[in-house]
């Protein structure tokens, strides 16, 4: 049910942008968070926000947020809202765009994409609230995550962070990464 409603929301965004796009112009929408889990991995969880990576200077994305951002008419009508997220918060692994997978659909302007599973999991390690832990555990239980893939994605996400002991946020995310590895290895029953 969540998938169908999210697809309808993205279809409304697409229809709105069709009237504003130049001939042949497209807008890649790099999804994050639970909308990526629902649309990209078939996970049945609820969300109201559709997190997309901010793209500096994208007039189409600006228009989409103007109509479908939090509290805007399109968002109120459809029950979801677009929220742009900086690629630095949460830190996204370098080169994540090239590993993204298209979300199938009959899109005119938008090109929704979901991150590779390890890249998505790493975005949840900084905050690691209950929903984040549940989402990462779902990816683990689905067999989509490996220790090596998580380590690679983490290193790519924190390539410009301070080294261990120099950056509190990186250290906290690394501790959460270790909890995920412990779960994968069966040393924890839950995240």
Describe the structure.
The chain is an alpha/beta fold. The protein has two domains: 2-115; 121-184, no CATH class. Helix content is 49%, strand content 12%. A five-stranded mixed β-sheet has the order 3-2-1-5-4. The longest helix has 17 residues, at 2-18. It is globular, with a radius of gyration of 17 Å.
Element layout with pairings:
Elements: H1 2-18, E1 27-32, H2 33-41, E2 49-53, H3 59-68, H4 73-78, E3 81-85, H5 96-99, E4 101-102, E5 110-114, H6 117-123, H7 130-141, H8 147-157, H9 168-184
E-strand count? 5
Rounded Rg: 17 Å
Mean pLDDT over the residues: 93
Strands side by side in the biggest sheet: 3-2-1-5-4
Q: How many independent structural domains?
A: 2
Overall geometry: globular
Indicate the proportion of strand residues: 5-15%
Give the helix level as a range of percent: 40-55%
Succession of helices and strands: HEHEHHEHEEHHHH
Cα end-to-end separation: 26 Å
Q: Which structural class should the secondary elements be placed in?
A: alpha/beta
Number of helical stretches of at least 4 residues = 9
Main sheet characteristics: 5 strands, mixed
Please mark out the parts with pLDDT under 50 across 5 or more consecutive residues, or reply none: none
Key terms:
single chain; 191 residues; alpha/beta; 5-stranded mixed sheet; globular
Structure, briefly:
The chain has 191 residues and is α/β, with parallel strands linked by helices. The protein has nine helices and five strands, in the order αβαβααβαββαααα. The chain folds into two domains: 2-115; 121-184, no CATH class.
């Amino acid at each position: 049910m969540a998938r169908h409603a999210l697809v309808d929301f993205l279809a409304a965004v697409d229809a709105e942008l069709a009237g504003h796009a130049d001939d042949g112009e497209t807008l890649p929408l790099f999804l994050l968070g639970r909308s990526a889990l629902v649309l990209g991995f078939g996970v049945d969880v609820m969300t109201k926000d559709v997190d997309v990576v901010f793209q500096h200077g994208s007039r189409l994305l600006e228009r989409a947020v103007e109509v479908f951002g939090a509290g805007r008419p399109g968002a109120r009508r459809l029950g979801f809202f677009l929220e742009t997220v900086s690629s630095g918060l949460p830190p996204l692994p370098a080169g994540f765009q090239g590993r993204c997978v298209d979300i199938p659909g009959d899109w005119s302007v938008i090109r929704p994409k979901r991150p590779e599973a390890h890249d998505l999991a790493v975005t949840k390690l900084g905050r690691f609230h209950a929903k984040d832990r549940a989402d990462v555990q779902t990816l683990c239980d689905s067999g989509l995550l490996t220790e090596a893939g998580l380590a690679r994605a983490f290193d790519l996400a924190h390539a410009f962070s301070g080294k261990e002991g120099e950056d509190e946020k990186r250290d906290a995310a690394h501790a959460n990464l270790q909890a995920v590895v412990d779960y994968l290895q069966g040393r924890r029953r839950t995240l």
